[in-house]
Amino acid sequence: DHEDAEPIDICRDVAVPCFSSPVNHNVLLTLALWGSHGIADSLWSDTVIVSYLSILASQLSKADGSHKSRPRNDVVGYIEACKGLVGVVLALPIGYFADHLHHGRQRVIAYGGVLTIIAAISSIWLLLYIGDQNDDDTTHSPRTSPDLNHIVVLFAGVMSMWGVSNLIVDGPVSALYADSVAAGQRSRYYVYLNNTWLLGTTVGPALSIFWFRSGSDSWTLSELKNIILLGVLLQGMTSIFMFLFDDRKSLPEEEGGKGDDDTAESSAPEEECENLVLSLAPGDASARADLESLRRRRRKIPYILFMAEMVSALGSGMTIKFFPLYFKNTVGMSPSQVQTIYVVAPFVLVVTSSLAEKTSRSLGRVQTIILFSSMGVISLYSMVLFEDYLVPRWYLLVPIYLLRNAMMNSGGALWESILMDSVPKNERARWISLNSIATFGWCGSAALGGVLADKFGYTYSFLITAIIQTLATLMLLLLLPLVPMEDSSSNQDNNNAMNRPQEEDIRRDEDDTTNILPVEDVNDLTLPLLS
User: Fold this and answer.
1) d(CA 531, CA 320)
2) How big is the chain by its Cα radius of gyration, in Å?
3) H-helix or E-strand containing 326?
4) Which of 18, 53, 410, 459 has a CA-to-CA distance to 402 between 20 and 30 Å?
């Protein structure tokens, strides 16, 4: 993309004056998009929409004579499953086009902006089409009573559009962000990005609390619908940022090798291994064999990460959308109380993510992910085994849930850092999109989770989720011999293992390729995706 362009002046063409120092054009846009997107999305897409769908389905099924008086979890699951299926089908094509089209990232992101606008308009139309149902009297048919199956199909289509929009924000936008940050600064800028998202996902539920408190603070369709209308309108407005990205303002490869702290972070570790193999003397067969073995081992890392994330996501899908309904229907909490949980959750996550990062310095990234995931799974087991005791005591149940949520997600930034340092730059969008399949994969199991919740209760789904995520945690053990611990003693051991009379610069390169990411580059990474 840079072949026919004029020489890039970093200060003029790439950087945008902002705050006390220049900020890359794409970096600034990504921060703005993720912050505003987080506010709008968290305002309506979790507790509010699932509660609206559950109550609406219950009322419509009562009106058409099925006499199903309790909230419908299965409808929520079916809609999420359709959303997940569309995401799985489109994830790889989106990543492929972002990697291979001329200016592919900015073009795919712009198309995502168009889709976001269409999704917002469609959502507003659908909510107005359904109208206000009778919240207080479910013994008579509402004034306007659309067919339930028809409504499910329409919502499945609308939510699928939102899913693809979110997929583009998580995929090509994230890849362009990584391409636009100097390697030595990447961990610091990931902190900015992650904290921006966390702040946004805190503001959204907080706004909904004020909305509920100003009204009846009850689970009525009219209140839920108004919040959804506001949320989708705001989210549609965030699409303006998606038309402003520019592939030409990403950093060239030679600019990505060194940051302010002179710490190089590999943007293409596979290519580094290959270059080192070629640079070795022809007679040094042993060192060449060691590096070839290292390159083969590194190729396995993203596949193991993907499989473990897929299994974990399938388990999460059975419960993640039903936690708000669990607190609503089983624990008996009001809308503002449930949303308070989701205001507090990001702050707990910040604390545990920082703890995970600090722990990884001495324990290792993979070891830390396994430790924190295990604690999260144990917390979920406790919610199942001690349900009868905990449900009447929400002040004990909620902290356990917050701990479970935080521990399961604390290693996400470490997870992402391992992935980003295990694949070349020109494959990042593909791998991010591929991992989005895992993120969307949990939507596929949501249908089963909804059916099980209706038939056996929420804790039955929680138990199955805990078992599946136990398996996913065990799968991470496969990474232990591939991703070495990144403390100083480990680095020294790896250096001694090579023990070859190489030139100083080649030996330094070998040290860098033995460790997938220097310890300095994992400092202060804080945010995963919620699972």
Assistant:
1) 7
2) 24
3) none
4) 53
Q: Is 170 exposed, middle or buried (0-12, 13-18, 19+ CB in 10 A)?
A: buried
Q: Specify which residues 16 forms β-bridges with.
A: 23
* CA end-to-end distance (rounded Å), the chain: 36
Pick from 186, 246, 196: which is nearest to 37 by CA?
A: 196
Identify whether the C-beta of residue 361 lies closer than 8 Å to the C-beta of residue 519: yes
* 280, amino acid identity: L
Question: Greater confidence, 521 or 172?
Answer: 172
Distant-in-sequence, close-in-space partners of 423: CB < 8 Å, separation ≥ 6: 269, 270, 302, 431
Looking up tokens 């710490």, which residue turns up?
263
Percent of residues in the chain assigned helix, strand, coil, to nearest 5:
75, 0, 25
Q: Which helix (H) or strand (E) holds 54?
A: helix 47-63
288 touches 280 (CB < 8 A): yes
The SS3 assignment for 21 reads strand
Answer for the pair 170, 95: CB distance below 8 angstroms, yes or no: no
User: What's the CA gap between 155 and 364, in Å, rounded?
Assistant: 44
C-beta separation of 205 from 343 below 8 A: yes
Cα 423 from Cα 354, distance rounded (Å) = 25
- Look-up of token digits 């795919």: 108
Residues linked to residue 18 through DSSP beta bridges, in sequence order: 21
Residue by residue, what is the 3-state secondary structure of 416-432?
A: HHHHHCCCCHHHHHHHH
Higher pLDDT, 228 or 101: 228
DSSP track, 413-473: HHHHHHHHTTS-GGGHHHHHHHHHHHHHHHHHHHHHHHHHHHHH-HHHHHHHHHHHHHHHH
- Give buried/exposed letters for 171-195 (b at 16+ CB in 10 A, else e): bbbbbbbbbbbbbbbbbbbbbbbbb
Neighbours of 438 (CB within 10 A): 23
H helical segments located in 215-268: 221-237
pLDDT tens for residues 372-426?
Answer: 999 999 999 999 999 999 999 999 999 999 999 999 988 877 887 787 777 776 6
Q: How many Cβ atoms sit within 10 Å of the Cβ of residue 150?
A: 10
Determine the Cα–Cα distance for residues 225 and 130; give it in Å rounded to an integer: 10
**Cα(297)–Cα(281) distance, integer angstroms:** 22
Sorted by sequence, the CB contacts under 8 Å of residue 263 that are 6+ apart come out as 183, 184, 518, 520, 521
- Please name every residue paired with 24 in a beta bridge, in sequence order, or none if there are none: 15
SS3 245: coil
pLDDT digits (tens, 9 = 90+) for 255-309: 554 444 333 444 445 555 555 555 555 556 666 566 666 667 777 888 888 888 8
Rounded Cα gap, residues 152 and 150, in angstroms: 5
**∠ at Cα 144 (143, 146), nearest 5°?**
145
Q: What is the DSSP track for 339-359?
A: HHHHHHHHHHHHHHHHHHHHH
> CA–CA separation, 116 vs 122, rounded Å?
10
